[in-house]
Amino acid sequence: QVQLVESGGGLVQAGGSLRLSCAASGSIINAMGWYRQAPGKQRELVADITRGGTPTYADSVKGRFTISRDNAKNTVYLQMNSLKPEDTAVYFCVAKAYGVSVFDWGQGTQVTVSS
Predict the structure, then answer these.
(1) What is the pLDDT of residues 49-90, one digit of tens each?
(2) What backbone torsions phi and psi does residue 40 show, to the nearest 5 degrees?
């Protein structure tokens, strides 16, 4: 089981930026990423990244968000620029250890973007 500790959420005005961090412990991590869930909506994948550094983004955040990771620290980051009110959600860090088929989840961190 992977233990995940998230940080970096907060309140920001539209057009601003935030950087989320997530440190994983307990296993050697394969894929890592970020989901988000807004009120009344399904949880959706925002971005993920392979251990080799290949990222994937939801269309809604392409060009604005950047995912990266530091394998030595088992940490994944989400740099969020040009934030929009529709980005408001609880953001969850996810990670998958080698040898398992499902993600472990962080507790979530609130991101609120005001207009």
Answers:
(1) 999 999 999 999 999 999 999 988 999 999 999 999 999 999
(2) 75, 5
